[in-house]
């Protein structure tokens, strides 16, 4: 299977998979992310216990890329320490901005690695990074 086929299947799967699309009533923090230029609008919910993200979810709507990127990110950050999540976040954003110096760090990204080629589609970059920027704002508030 080619990288493009994996990317397409991953977007399709995560866009349809609703396991992470949920409001968490007792979330430690919630953060809205909105992209007015295309209409993507999500709210990220994160529940933290002893510096570990024990649950996360999101609500909202948007294109398949923003919805899938949010779901992939949530799968990646659950059960991780806040510091580890910070490393994952920075690695992802550097990958999308094509600023990654240490290619070995890309292993941190799991399935999010397959979103790499979106950096070649300027109109879609805002879609893929929306949840990640919401996560960054959330972590800064802790």
Overall SS class: alpha+beta
In N-to-C order, the SSE pattern is: HEEEHHH
Overall pLDDT level: 94
The spatial strand order of the largest sheet comes to: 1-2-3
> What is the terminal separation in angstroms?
41 Å
Total discrete domains: 1
Share in helix: 40-55%
- Please name the CATH architecture: Alpha-Beta Complex
Beta-strand share of residues = 15-25%
Q: How many β-strand runs?
A: 3
Largest sheet: 3 strands, antiparallel
Please state the overall shape, judged from the principal axes of the Cα atoms.
Answer: globular
The number of distinct helices, counting runs of at least 4 residues, comes to: 4
Low-confidence stretches: none
Radius of gyration over all CA atoms, rounded:
14 Å
CATH topology: Sufe protein. Chain: A
Quickly name the level 1 CATH class: Alpha Beta
Short description:
With 142 residues, this protein is an alpha+beta fold. It has helices spanning 3-16, 64-77, 82-96, 122-140, and strands at 29-35, 40-49, 52-61.
Structure description:
The chain is an alpha+beta fold. It has a single domain (3-140), classed as Sufe protein. Chain: A (Alpha-Beta Complex), CATH 3.90.1010. It is 44% helix and 19% strand. It contains four helices and three strands, in the order αβββααα. Helix 2 (64-77) runs parallel beside helix 4 (122-140). The longest helix is centred in the last third of the chain and has 19 residues, at 122-140. The relative contact order is 0.19.
Short key terms for the protein model shown above:
44% helix; alpha+beta; three-stranded antiparallel beta sheet; globular; Sufe protein. Chain: A
């Amino acid at each position: 299977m080619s990288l493009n086929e994996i990317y397409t299947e991953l977007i399709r799967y995560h866009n349809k998979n609703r396991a992470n699309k949920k409001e968490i009533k007792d979330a430690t923090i919630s953060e809205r992310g909105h992209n007015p230029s295309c209409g993507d609008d999500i709210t990220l919910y994160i529940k933290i216990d002893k510096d570990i993200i024990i649950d996360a979810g999101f609500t909202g709507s948007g294109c398949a890329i923003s919805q899938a990127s949010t779901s992939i990110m949530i799968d990646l950050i659950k059960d991780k320490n806040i510091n580890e999540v910070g490393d994952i976040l920075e690695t992802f954003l550097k990958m999308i901005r094509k600023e990654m110096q240490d290619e070995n760090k890309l292993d941190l990204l799991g399935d999010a690695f397959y979103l790499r080629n979106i950096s070649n589609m300027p109109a879609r970059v805002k879609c893929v990074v929306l949840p990640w920027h919401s996560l960054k704002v959330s972590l800064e508030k802790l």
